[in-house]
Structures are given as C-alpha cells and as structure tokens.
Design a protein that fits this description.
Length: 326
C-alpha cells in the first residue's frame, strides 16, 4: 500500500507519518518509509540522532544508480541519461518490491529499529532552491517518483511517504501515485485552504484523499474541521505528550502512546487497507504514461534530445503478477 502524508508546512506531516510508521512496525508489517519533504525530519521523528540522520544516503545523489537498475534490459530506454523521473517501466524493466533486497535499497535505504521491528528508511536529501522549481530535471522527488512507478506492492506491505503539498508533486504527477493520501490539517483557515487546493488537483485524477485533523483541542476545532472538510475528515489527533517526550529525545515505549491517538492510527490503517479493493493497476499505469508524455513535451524531449514518448511500452501494465527479469 502506497500512502502519502501531505499538508501545509508545520501541520504535523512528519509527526503523523512517523507515528503511523511506528504503528505499522509494531504490528509487524513490512514498511519502507520515505522522507520526501522539503524539511527532512522523518529520521529524527523515528528516533535517529543528528549524526545518524546526517549520515543517511540521499536518494537524489543516487539517481544514476536508481535509473540504471530500474531500466534493466528495457530496449525502449537507451541509457540512464535518457531516463527522466516519469519514464515508465516496460518489458525488460526491473521492478521493486517492499519485501526484497535490491541494489536500490542497498544504496539508499537504512534500517531503523522501532518497537516491534525494523523499517527501511529512505530520504530524498536536502532540497536546494533549484529543486523547488516546477518539473526540475534534477528534482529530488524524481527519485521517489521513479521508485513508486516501478513498485509492485501488495496488501499488508507499506510504503509511507512524508511529503509536502507543493507544486513539484502536482507538476510531476507524484500526487497520483498513492492508494491513500492523508492530508494533515490544523483547524485553521490556512490548514484548510491547502486541503481545498489539493482536493482541486486530486479531483480529476481519482486521488483518494482523507483529512487528518491535527492539534485538535476541543469541540470548536472539531466542528470547524467537520464544517470545512465534510466527509473527507477521517480522524483527528490532539496534542500528544508522547510526541512531546519524543521531541525531547526521550521517546517512551510506543505502546505508551495515548489510547485516543493509537485509535486514530488504527483508523488510518483501516482506511488505507480498504482502498486495496479498488486499486486499478491499469489506471495507475495509464496515469504515469500521461504524466510522462506531458513532461516529455514540456521539457524532457528538449533536455534529453530524444523523443521520450517512444519510451512508452504500449502493451505494458504494471501489477503484482508481473514477473520481473532477474
Ligand atoms: N499531535 C501533536 N502533539 C504534539 N506535538 C505535535 C503534534 N503534531 C505536531 N506536533 C509538533 O509540531 C511541530 C511541527 O510538526 P511536524 O514537524 O510534524 O510538521 P510538518 O508538517 O512535518 O512540518 P514541516 O512542513 O516543517 O515539515 C513539531 O515540533 C511537532 O513535534
Ligand atoms: Mg516535516
């Protein structure tokens, strides 16, 4: 299951993604956690100290390796240099699985021990000003998008991405790559306006979006979010002393998280799991091809000096039953 946490800066994306990741790990589920946020804090929220966080390999710096591996023997992709962030898999491409070892994880993922078991953590690396432009060739999130477009995940295995609600994800199509998108919103006008904007983009692409209220303090806050988000409001999370203790570098055992917040995390998992029945690999593949063609026309063809539309394998549909070449 591919799950994104998006929202306004400071809304609690990293906090809620990290709690959700801890919840999944405690239940014994395999998890790949990805930090694709502008502010790279997921490692710290999962308990890494500063030196450990700083020592994590950046996906953005391993793009050539990622491209070369995923390209495999796909005859439509001449070289890693001709591969852009939206280049879709086709016959001969290598696919990624949550539960496997592969050179991409070797280079970019590090295990993080949590109560219940280890998860794999991958980070895009720090963003520079150049990364924040639209459809940037060297976009840090491009590495994440490539991985998501080559990932064949089944139920009960999870990829959780901590992400912004920014223009980069809309330009590239990244926001369409998830079974479930949790939009974290504080009960404020600004928090809700990001929800509206996201919903607008999501509408035409069949994106499943649920609002998770955060820092919700009383009936007034709850009423406000209900009124603004309607049926999209899934659950709300209040102030957490467990989170505060964690922020002080003294994380209690995870089973000591407040029961009301633990219940909210179970609701997130249930809602995410329920989307599996309506997953549509054909649509998933079609959308990645559409965004690839859009990127090809707007900048990719010119940048690579190639007709990138020819990279599309018309007969290929990504799916769990696809058998990847060795
Ligand atoms: N439910 C909560 N209880 C207590 N503290 C919280 C809660 N949610 C968020 N916080 C605190 O609020 C601050 C911002 O949260 P967080 O870093 O998760 O937001 P973010 O959306 O990831 O921000 P950014 O856009 O900077 O990445 C953090 O210090 C975090 O510990
Ligand atoms: Mg964050």
């Amino acid at each position: 299951m591919k799950i994104a946490f998006v929202g306004k800066g400071g809304s609690g994306k990293t906090t809620l993604s990290s709690l959700f990741i801890r919840h999944l790990a405690a239940a014994g589920a395999p998890v790949v956690a990805i930090d694709a946020d502008i502010n790279q804090h997921l490692g710290a929220a999962l308990g890494l100290d500063e030196a450990e966080s700083a020592g994590l390999p950046a996906m953005g710096e391993h793009l050539p390796l990622i491209k070369d591996y995923l390209r495999g023997s796909n005859p439509r992709i001449a070289s890693a240099e001709k591969m852009i962030k939206t280049t879709p898999p086709g016959e001969g491409s290598r696919l990624l699985r949550v539960r496997e070892d592969n050179p991409v994880y070797d280079a970019c993922a590090r295990p993080v021990e949590l109560d219940g078991g280890a998860v794999r953590l991958m980070v895009t690396g720090h963003f520079t000003d150049a990364d924040l432009g639209v459809a940037c060739y060297h976009s840090k999130t491009g590495a994440v998008e490539l991985c998501l477009n080559h990932l064949v995940d089944g139920p009960d295995e999870y990829v959780v991405v901590d992400m912004t609600a920014g223009s980069d994800s809309f330009a590239s199509g990244m926001f369409t790559r998830f079974d479930m998108t949790f939009l974290v919103a504080e009960p404020t006008r600004k928090g809700v306006s990001v929800y509206r904007q996201y919903k607008e983009y999501a509408r035409d692409f069949g994106v499943t979006l649920k609002v998770v209220g955060n820092k919700v303090q009383g009936p007034d806050d709850l009423d406000f979010l209900r009124e603004q988000a309607g049926d999209d409001l899934l659950v709300t999370v209040g102030h957490s002393d467990w989170v505060r203790a964690m922020e002080k570098g003294r994380p209690p055992r995870f089973d000591l998280l407040e029961e009301v917040n633990a219940r909210a995390l179970r609701a997130l998992r249930t809602a995410a799991d329920e989307t599996y029945g309506s997953r549509d690999w054909r649509r998933y593949t079609r959308q990645m091809v559409e965004f690839h063609q859009r990127n090809a026309r707007s900048w990719g063809n010119e940048r690579t000096g190639t007709d990138l539309a020819a990279q599309v394998d018309p007969g290929f549909v990504l799916g769990e039953e696809v058998v990847a070449p060795a």
